[in-house]
Design a protein that fits this description.
- The protein is mostly beta strands and 351 residues long.
- 0% of the residues lie in helices and 50% in strands.
- The chain is built from no helices and 33 strands.
- It has strands at 4-5, 11-17, 27-28, 33-35, 40-41, 55-61, 68-73, 79-83, 88-92, 98-103, 110-115, 121-125, 130-134, 141-145, 155-160, 166-170, 174-178, 185-189, 196-201, 207-211, 216-221, 226-230, 239-244, 250-254, 259-264, 269-274, 282-287, 293-297, 302-307, 312-317, 325-331, 334-339, 344-350.
- The strands form 7 sheets. Strands 1, 5, 27, 28, 29 and 30 form a 6-stranded antiparallel sheet that branches. Strands 2-26-25-24-23 form a 5-stranded antiparallel sheet, with no helix packed on it.
């Protein structure tokens, strides 16, 4: 496979105070493909000894027409993925390339998938307007529908907080919470109307969501169901997805601005890094267990990672156009993404 390399300059755009607080038949896929390691750029700042790491990409073809959207590494070593176009939950065996699919119900259009504390995949299904749990052993699908006064929520993504509560977003302008034990669900209106997209729970217990249309990051006030609005320095940046590192810093994919943002709750400060290229478009962001920040750049058709300690970037561009990776999620040593434009999954491994 031909490899295109992209060297990103780590230019810090701004460091500004935070916004005012309102604050089931198996299918055998074709042979996976492997991309060799990328070079690194730029070098670490003077005086640092930590060297940026390279990584390799491996792609796994899926059945045609599934339209993979989000991924979640499974506890059994496989990878769950939402097949949005076919209304299924898929599972990939990275060792063999074999896949299986579980039908989620008539009208299903699943968006996000995560693995809960119970080891089961949990899904935000926009077509069914419901949260779904799939039993990883029996494939039984349990449905938690949104209240009848919340139709067409356009459900997006979900996250479990450290107390085991499931939080979720809907692009129609809502966020909500689900108690998996009782099934009780509460849905709240988000500030500025439509837009809630990515969501993440931090180690400190806080939960944040990104509003793509609203151009802000919201911190959910669990006690009241309210939201503290945190606005990145760049106007109209299009905050799309969020993730937390081990220090509860909030990392933000700024879609419209082509930037990586970071909010430090302790100092109530923002930083932003502009990606290079004619039109960078940062879709997904994920922070791994080493606090390396990974992102997808649709403008450069690439996966990149960023070392906050050295502000050094490493990037891979895909050999074929329009990979359109919708989301990233990982486990130690691996970061997975769904290539919606090519009906593939991809894994990045440090080298």
């Amino acid at each position: 496979m031909k490899l295109a390399l992209v060297a990103f300059a780590s230019a810090v755009i701004a460091c500004a105070p935070a916004a005012t607080r309102a604050e089931s038949s198996p299918t055998i896929a074709s042979t996976p493909t492997l991309t060799p390691a990328a070079t690194v750029a730029p070098p670490p700042p003077p005086g640092t000894s930590r060297q940026p790491l390279g990584f390799t990409l491996q792609e796994f073809p899926l059945p045609h027409g599934q339209g993979p959207h989000d991924v979640a590494p499974a506890r059994d070593g496989g990878v769950w993925y939402t097949a949005q176009l076919s209304g299924e939950l898929g599972w990939l065996d990275p060792g063999t390339g074999m896949t299986k699919a579980i039908k989620l119900g008539s009208g299903s259009a699943p968006h996000g998938v995560i693995v809960g504390p119970d080891g089961a995949p949990w899904i935000t299904d926009g077509g069914l307007n419901a949260i779904l749990r799939v039993d990883p052993v029996t494939s039984e699908v349990k449905r938690y529908p949104l209240p009848t006064n919340r139709p067409n929520a356009n459900l997006n993504t979900a996250a479990f907080d450290r107390d085991g509560t499931l939080w979720f977003t809907g692009q129609s302008g809502i966020f909500g919470r689900l108690d998996p034990k009782s099934g009780a669900m509460t849905v709240s209106d988000a500030p500025r109307g439509p837009g809630p997209y990515g969501i993440a729970a931090c180690p400190d217990g806080e939960v944040y969501f990104a509003s793509l249309a609203g151009n802000y990051v919201g911190r959910i006030v669990k006690e009241t169901g309210g939201t503290i609005v945190l606005t990145p320095p760049t106007s109209g940046q299009g905050a799309r997805r969020v993730w937390c590192d081990s220090k509860s810093h909030v990392w933000v994919a700024e879609w419209n601005a082509g930037q990586l943002g970071m909010y430090d709750p302790a100092g109530q400060m923002w930083r932003e890094w502009k990606l290079v290229g004619p039109r960078p478009m940062v879709y997904a962001v994920f922070v791994d267990d080493a606090d390396t920040v990974w992102l997808t750049d649709w403008g450069e058709n690439a996966i990149a990672h960023f070392d906050p300690a050295t502000e050094a970037w490493v990037s891979h561009a895909h050999a074929l156009p329009n990979a359109n990776i919708r989301q990233l999620l990982g486990r130690p040593g691996e970061v997975w993404g769904a290539m919606s434009g090519q009906d593939k999954l991809v894994v990045a491994r440090s080298s």
